Amino acid sequence: MVEAQAISKQRVVMVTGASRGIGKAVAMSLAEQGHHLILTARSLEGGATFSGTTVDDPLAGQGLSGSVSEVAAQCRSMGVRAIAVALDLTDEQSITTAAEIALAEFGSVDTLISNAIYQGPGVNDFFADVPMDLLRQVIESDAVAPLILLKAFLPGMLTSGRGVFIHLTSGAATLAPRKPAGQGGWGIAYAMAKGAAHRIAGVLHVEHGAQGLRAYSLNPGHVTTEVMHMRAQREDRTVTGEGPEDVAIAVTWLVAGDPAACQLSGQEVVSRDVIQRLRNS
């Protein structure tokens, strides 16, 4: 259970893509710290399936565990308020409605963790095979959709002087793949979406840092998600990397506003660097 704490430390946080993996781990970690939560996913209940990342992804249609409603219930068991809200990154009305529900329920949202990404064909297909309308959809889902949410929450963030925006990014935002998509690399749609989203934090810091807004691009590194384990099992190989819980530690540290974390506003933060910093402190 959450102990009584100073209101200045307690936050209202929206975490997108919170059914499983990094989003779920972040939600659970923030609940342990006493923060109230709005958790989003495309569907509220179980039965979700993986959409794949290419037109011929063999994992497309595979069932995924858990649901955002279950995660919200687990968070409530820790003594915080937590609601599950449907949000489809490809549907602007869905995004706007999710923001309206959050504001109606809590009055304001001072922290936005942008974790959800577009999943579906086109993400990791070769450029020659990606229709332009699908390319636009991937980029808008990953880079524009979070800004629709942020625009709705920004007035309250600036009024409180304690807003936080964290966008989960990737090395694909700044690096060229060593191999083509499907062979260990990534597709142009994914790279462009991550690259666009990667630039958000720096601009927000310059424009609103003086009003107390902290913004970060958080690179989680190579994280062992449920889909990665499914793919590794199919290919009879072992998957290695950091767990979602490691990323959650980094997010929770940034949200808490340690002086060292405040100094990193506007920058790319690498999850494993935060873990190492905390181990050495």
Short synopsis of the structure:
With 281 residues, the chain is an alpha/beta fold. It has helices at 21-32, 68-76, 92-106, 132-160, 188-198, 200-208, 226-234, 244-256, 259-263, 271-280, and strands spanning 12-15, 36-41, 82-86, 111-114, 164-168, 214-219, 268-270. Strands 3-2-1-4-5-6-7 form a seven-stranded parallel beta sheet, sandwiched between helices.
Structure description:
α3 (92-106) runs parallel beside α4 (132-160) and α8 (244-256) packs across α10. α4 links the parallel β4 (111-114) and β5 (164-168). The protein has 281 residues and is α/β, with parallel strands linked by helices. The two termini are 27 Å apart. The chain is 43% helix and 12% strand. It has one domain (12-280): Rossmann fold (3-Layer(aba) Sandwich), CATH 3.40.50.720. It is globular.
Sequence-ordered SSE layout with sheet pairings:
Elements: E1 12-15, H1 21-32, E2 36-41, H2 68-76, E3 82-86, H3 92-106, E4 111-114, H4 132-160, E5 164-168, H5 188-198, H6 200-208, E6 214-219, H7 226-234, H8 244-256, H9 259-263, E7 268-270, H10 271-280
Parallel strand pairs: 1-2, 1-4, 2-3, 4-5, 5-6, 6-7
Radius of gyration: 18 Å
User: How many distinct beta strands?
Assistant: 7
CATH class: Alpha Beta
Question: Which fold name is given in CATH as the topology?
Answer: Rossmann fold
CATH superfamily: NAD(P)-binding Rossmann-like Domain
Number of domains: 1
Task: State the helicity in percent bands.
Answer: 40-55%
Shape: globular
Order of helices and strands: EHEHEHEHEHHEHHHEH
Strand-residue proportion: 5-15%
- Our measurement of the CA-to-CA distance between the termini, rounded to an integer number of angstroms, reads 27 Å
GO molecular function, one term: oxidoreductase activity
Pfam families: adh_short
GO cellular component, one term: membrane
Keywords: Oxidoreductase
